[in-house]
Each structure stands twice: as C-alpha cells, then as structure tokens.
Known about the structure:
Elements: E1 7-9, H1 18-21, E2 27-29, E3 43-45, E4 49-53, H2 61-76, E5 84-88, H3 92-97, H4 99-105, E6 111-112, E7 120-122, E8 125-127, H5 148-158, E9 177-179, H6 193-202, E10 205-207
Parallel strand pairs: 3-7, 4-5, 4-8, 5-6, 9-10
Antiparallel strand pairs: 1-2
Amino acid sequence: MQAYKSFKIKPHPRKQDKIALTHVKEISIEPISLNQTTPHCTMMHIAPAILFSTGGYIGNMFHDFTDVLIPLFITSFPFHGQVHFLVGEMQPWWINKYRPLLQQLTRYKIINLTKVKRGLCYSKAIVGLKFHKEMSIDPKKTNNKYSMVDFAQIIRKSFDLERENATKLAIHNSTKTRLLVISRKKTRSFTNVKEIVKMATTLGYDIF
C-alpha cells in the first residue's frame, strides 16, 4: 500500500511570486488511514472537485486569464462539466464577471471555501491548477491535444461571440486600417516602438 505524506500548498500557479502568494491562504493536506475516523460528511459527491484560489492579481485581465481562467480550463476541460469548483479567496464580483465562462466548465454551483460550514466529500480532488505558460496552452501536455483554439471556442460560446474571424476589408478599399499601439512605461513595455510603427506603416496601417 502506498504511503502518503501530509503537505501544505497554496493553490495558485505563481509559486515563485511571493507578492501574489501573500494573498493566497495555505491549505493543509492530511492523509487518513483506513482505521482512522474521517470527518463527518454531510454531503457526498460522485463528481470530483478542483480546489483553486482566485487570490493574487485578479482584477487585471492579463492575470485573470493567465493565472486562473486558462489554467482552470486546462485542468477542468477533460471532465466535460462534471466537476465541482472549490474556490479560495473568492470574490463574488469576479465570479459574476466570468460566470458565463465558468458555467461552460462546471455544471455545479461554485463553492466559496471560506463559507463552507459542513463536511463536503468527493470521490477525487485536484488541489491547484495545471499551468503551462503565460497566456497559452501546450497541446502536448494535454490528454486530448486541446489548445488555445478550444479555449477560444469556449470563450465565444460563453459570451455569444458569433464572429470567429476579424472583419475582412475589401481589396480595393482606400481606407487604411487603424492600429492602436499602447506602450507601457514600466513592466512589459515595448523596447522598439519606433521599429513597430515603421513596420506597421509599411504594411499599410494608420498608426495612432
């Protein structure tokens, strides 16, 4: 029989980011042997659970997708909705904002871990989310080779976005396509704005 050890974990993808993790509560995982008394289960679920945190940098769209939504898609998509979400540091406004997407990934009510006052038991639980790289999915690391294309389809379905492709301009259209370049001053800033503008101009864009 395999021996399991107790451990503690903060269920957030940014394991090396101390600032992000200060907003994530640590969870203790304790093994229970067959002869030990288990906590009383007030409800037993056959479907598995995924436990994760929406702490860290939520509220910033980049981090919403990179830290939570894409990893949650990677982790939960194989269950086809038959999975429970247990959320730490849950903010109702954040859940409501992305509820259309979350409802595509789970058929059950999303549970706020800080408000759980009864014993919930699951056949299986996944603690934390799978993370490949920022704003991306590596098909080689998924069971069914799903990718960002599949994630994009879920997004379109969630928010009723019927158009799959950008608008195609007429070949002889004299109006230039506008390209907005937003250059940040601090983090994740462009270091070659002039080169970007020059290339975009040669490609026919009206830069502003």
